[in-house]
């Protein structure tokens, strides 16, 4: 059966779609869709072929849309909404996560102000997960530089009731009962204690095939977790800076992941320029990969700005604030620019589609 890759590229001025066949050498670009508004995230659901987009218009209000025909047409959902008297007003969506294959109609959304919403009808309507709001730490959550957003939703490979979430700036949390109860998930090993270490999560990921494997990029650290562990292991040494947003986990290799280090203050790549750092040993060592990337370029990639396909070898993709998307067909070892002159790229999601 033939495969193709569809990249859903969110920008500050709409959603672009890049398509390629199994060779991943030639790409076509469509868009923008959604008007000149920020798209914080767009995602493909491999369970039924749906696509979802977080369209965060500053006029008319933010909305979530879905497509059932691979992006040819889009429909506005019944937006996430807080009940009257909650003290919150839905502002924008940061992340949309298809549920587990064992729960085929479930879709999750992380929003601002930081809250989790659940859909049980394939994104048609959304219900507030009030149990997270009731966690004792809630009064201590404060907006990060980008706002108070729930932007990471990591579902366990085997058990749909096990899930991790990340909030900026509120911390990491987990549930083992499908969201009925939540535990703060901030215990670490391998580095000195710092009271704010988990105040600002930047990206939290679950391995799609191996239960219990987690990878996390926080404001100034990178962490790994193995099955059965209850603490996060410090894995930042070997990176040129401690700061960064974008992160991706290898869909087949349970010990491999990618990050793009940035300067903490400028939010751009440090000398000698943009690079993707890869680990094959759970973050114990990191390798710089910049072949094909522009030498000396001080580019920036945001938290949703990097993703992988599921080919073998895996394709890795990232977008920049300069409106470019770069692709690697050899698991991050070498790169090529596949599109340029887009608006500021906010998210990249790679959909591997068979048929």
Could you provide a short overview of the structure?
Helices cover 1% and strands 41% of the residues. The chain has one helix at residues 130-133; strands at 3-11, 14-21, 28-33, 39-44, 51-55, 63-67, 75-76, 92-98, 107-112, 115-119, 127-128, 149-155, 163-168, 171-175, 183-184, 188-189, 201-206, 214-218, 221-225, 232-234, 243-249, 257-262, 276-279, 287-289, 306-308, 316-319, 325-328, 336-339, 345-354.
Counting H and I runs of at least 4 residues, what is the number of helices?
1
**Could you give the order of strands across the largest sheet?**
16-20-19-18-17
Our measurement of the CA-to-CA distance between the termini, rounded to an integer number of angstroms, reads 6 Å
Give the overall silhouette: globular
**Beta-strand percent range:** 35-45%
What report would you give on this structure?
The chain is mainly β and 355 residues long. Helix content is 1%, strand content 41%. Strand 10 (115-119) and strand 11 (127-128) form a beta hairpin. The protein is globular.
Please give the structural blueprint.
Elements: E1 3-11, E2 14-21, E3 28-33, E4 39-44, E5 51-55, E6 63-67, E7 75-76, E8 92-98, E9 107-112, E10 115-119, E11 127-128, H1 130-133, E12 149-155, E13 163-168, E14 171-175, E15 183-184, E16 188-189, E17 201-206, E18 214-218, E19 221-225, E20 232-234, E21 243-249, E22 257-262, E23 276-279, E24 287-289, E25 306-308, E26 316-319, E27 325-328, E28 336-339, E29 345-354
Parallel strand pairs: 16-20
Antiparallel strand pairs: 1-2, 1-29, 2-3, 4-5, 5-6, 6-7, 8-9, 9-10, 10-11, 12-13, 13-14, 14-15, 17-18, 18-19, 19-20, 21-22, 22-23, 23-24, 25-26, 26-27, 27-28
């Amino acid at each position: 059966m033939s495969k193709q890759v569809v990249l859903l590229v969110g920008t500050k001025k709409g959603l672009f779609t890049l398509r390629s066949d199994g060779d991943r050498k030639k790409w076509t670009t469509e868009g923008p869709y959604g008007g000149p508004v920020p798209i914080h995230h767009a995602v493909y659901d491999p369970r039924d072929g749906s696509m979802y987009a977080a369209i965060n218009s500053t006029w008319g209000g933010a909305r979530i849309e879905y497509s059932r025909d691979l992006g040819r047409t889009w429909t506005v959902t019944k937006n996430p909404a807080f009940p009257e008297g909650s003290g919150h007003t839905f502002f924008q969506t940061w992340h949309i996560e298809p549920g587990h294959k064992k729960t085929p109609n479930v879709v999750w959304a992380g929003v601002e102000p930081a809250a989790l919403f659940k859909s049980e009808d394939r994104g048609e309507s959304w219900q507030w997960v009030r149990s997270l709001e009731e966690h004792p730490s809630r009064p201590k959550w404060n907006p990060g530089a980008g706002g108070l957003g729930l932007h990471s939703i990591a579902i366990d490979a085997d058990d749909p009731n096990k899930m991790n979430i990340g909030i900026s700036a509120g911390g990491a949390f987990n549930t083992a009962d499908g969201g009925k109860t939540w535990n703060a998930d901030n215990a670490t090993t391998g580095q000195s204690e710092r009271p704010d270490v988990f105040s600002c999560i930047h990206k939290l990921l679950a391995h799609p095939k191996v239960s219990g494997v987690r990878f996390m990029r926080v404001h100034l650290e990178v962490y790994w977790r193995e099955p059965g562990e209850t603490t996060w292991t410090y894995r930042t040494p070997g990176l040129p800076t401690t700061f960064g947003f974008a992160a991706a986990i290898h869909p087949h290799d349970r010990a491999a992941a990618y990050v793009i280090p940035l300067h903490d203050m400028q939010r751009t790549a440090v000398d000698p320029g943009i690079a993707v750092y890869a680990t094959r040993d759970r973050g114990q060592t990191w390798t710089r990969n910049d072949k094909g990337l522009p030498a000396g370029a001080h580019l920036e990639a945001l938290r949703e700005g990097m993703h992988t396909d599921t080919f073998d070898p895996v394709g890795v993709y990232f977008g920049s604030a300069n409106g470019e998307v770069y692709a690697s067909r050899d698991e991050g070892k070498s790169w090529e620019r596949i599109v340029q002159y887009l608006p500021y790229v906010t998210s990249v999601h790679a959909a591997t589609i068979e048929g």
